[in-house]
Amino acid sequence: MKHRKRILTGLTLFAGGLGTGVLVGAVPAPGRIAQPIPADSTVSSIGSTLPVGNGLALTPPMGWNSWNHFGCNVSSELIRETADAMVASGMKDAGYRYVVIDDCWQVARDSSGRIVADSTRFPEGMKALADYVHSKGLKFGLYTDAGRRTCQGRPGSYQHEGQDARTYAQWGVDYVKVDWCNAQGLDAPTRYAVFRDALESSGRDIVFSICEWGSNKPWKWGPETGNLWRTTGDISDRWESVLSILDRSSQYWASAGPGAWNDPDMLEVGNGGMTNTEYQAHFSLWAIMAAPLMAGNDLREMTADKRRARATRAILTNEEVIAVDQDSLGVQGRLVQNDPPELQVWAKPLADGSTAAVLLNRASVPTPIAVSFRSLGIKTDSASVRDLWAQEDEGTFGRRYSPMVPSHGVVMVKVTPKG
Ligand code: GLA
């Protein structure tokens, strides 16, 4: 990136492609810096204030969450086996770290108000379980609710935020997902800020995942509050669900950046409700949106030498697609071509000056899609194209690239300007 501008003491803005840039430097403390960031012909305006967070999740968090596959059927045994499988399946090597127990691990509060885990399902307790997960080089996460009860009726954290954050820190929790059921009459930005401050005071680095389903415009206050925020209601294991979440979550692309991500919900790859072509598209679209990559399948099945396990592994561990999601520039990709509407191109600028693109065919027949390099922000006469699923270089092209794209599928490429 050639263009750069010092915008305030300690920070320099480097201009990127597609009206983006990176700020490099150091500020004295987390919070919000009310410093207008100037725009000029070489450096785009990026907003009037600059949020500076807890320093965590500088790239979208990667891991696994129990909800999509197991619902309330969680236990110590499942979490230990999942941690083992995360290593054995190659998921850990691919970058997945957080093992997160969703709803139903908690049953009550004791006489001092301390949250109590289900002793039948988690006989060893959460500290010992967290220690086991950590012993595998992985990180441990839990779920709670900012309201009075969780969505499954377990005790919520309302008015116990400080106590719960301290308990989590004692147990060795690295990630907390905070839901929004049973919160009638409460104000989401206020309650989630209380939770953020409680985590901040706990003395432990804990990634903060906000889950209020986009009900209170979290893309506006999420960046100064949490590391990720859900933008929609729950995903289901169907192609229509993937498309409807894509269409909503993508609108808020400008709110995402290092440490603060739109969360279009956990992955369904490997759960059986879609074709492998659709799962490949689902994963590609989450990567181009710089979404958190939280697997939602049974990881224990992934180690099998069976066709389905192999297909799931090939999707969830494709390092070139994951690298797009995890790119350090931290820009969420967006829709750049939509004509006709079933044939779309989504583009994400990358730190090395190249652009990743997903060519998405929403129609029911295979169709070629022509991606114009100009729509990717590429100004040179030609560019080289690498297919990230085939993992092969396709050659150098002038102005556009027009592969055949399967129905309900994608071609995902990295386009690097030449000359
Ligand atoms: C809500 C959330 C889901 C899951 C369930 C658990 O629906 O959006 O992701 O956590 O609650 O009850």
Explain what the structure shows.
With about 425 residues, the protein is α/β, with parallel strands linked by helices. Helix content is about 25%, strand content about 25%. It is built from 11 helices and 25 strands. The strands form 7 sheets. It has an 8-stranded parallel beta sheet. A 6-stranded antiparallel beta sheet has the order 16-17-18-25-21-22, with helices on one face. It has a 3-stranded antiparallel beta sheet with strand order 1-2-3, with no helix packed on it. The longest helix is centred in the middle third of the chain and has 14 residues, at about 190-200. The radius of gyration is 22 Å and the shape is globular. The two termini are about 15 Å apart. Alpha-D-galactopyranose binds near residues 102 and 152.
What's the CATH architecture name of the largest domain?
Alpha-Beta Barrel
CATH-defined fold name of the largest domain: TIM Barrel
Tally of separate helices:
11
Sheet with the most strands, sense and barrel status? 8 strands, parallel
Helix/strand/pairing category = alpha/beta
CATH class of the largest domain: Alpha Beta
Q: How many domains make up the coordinates?
A: 3
Helical amount among residues, as a percent range? 10-25%
Give the N-to-C terminal Cα separation.
15 Å
Low-confidence segments: 39-49
Total beta strands: 25
Percent of residues in β-strands = 25-35%
Spatial order of strands in the largest sheet:
14-13-12-11-10-7-6-15
Mean pLDDT: 92
